[in-house]
Design brief:
With about 210 residues, this protein is an alpha+beta fold. Helix content is about 35%, strand content about 15%. The strands form three sheets. Strands 1-4 form a two-stranded parallel sheet. The chain has a two-stranded antiparallel sheet with strand order 2-3. Strands 5-6 form a two-stranded antiparallel ribbon.
Length: about 210
Amino acid sequence: MKYQKSSSYQRIDTAAKAKVFQNAFGRRLLLSCIPKAQSIKMLSVRMDVDLAKIHYYMRRLLKLGLVKVESTQARAGRGIKMYRATADGFFVPIDLVVPFDSALRDKMFEGIDDQYLLDGGGTVFTVGADGAPLRHKVYGSDDRAKKANEVWAYLNITQEHLDLLNQEIIEVIGKYKASNMSPLSKSGRPAETGTMVHFAYSPIDYTK
């Protein structure tokens, strides 16, 4: 699915607000408040997270102006506040994005190296049919299932095809995220073990 810019999206304008979207729990809480207004208890049940943690993060979102109290339901004693996101979506400019957690990045490459260093591993350097240089790693030939992999390729493709490749990769990752069988724990964090998937591309000029 390709998302278009919308006037209903709120543009994030500070680093403090941008950090919310890089925190898995904070982002999940905020997005849970987009479809309809919800109380702290409703969010606690839906997300399977302690009330205290929801309260803590909700105060932060309120202070940043990312959520608002849409209404207060009357009841004996203190009323029940219903919280809703201040927009249908949020646009985070790239210049406000903090680099991805370096510790997770290092762990991912450590796992790749561990697989790569198995007996018999090495790197193949060659060229494609069009003469463009190619490089790929050959992993050790043991009997264990491959748990880490790395693929490099030089592609001489048009911007249109690059956009298609990008969209296809996003859809494939989205497919497996949707079928994830390891739900978040009460802490709001994923399981201690899992698989980190990294996709990146960049223009390169071999003449420089």
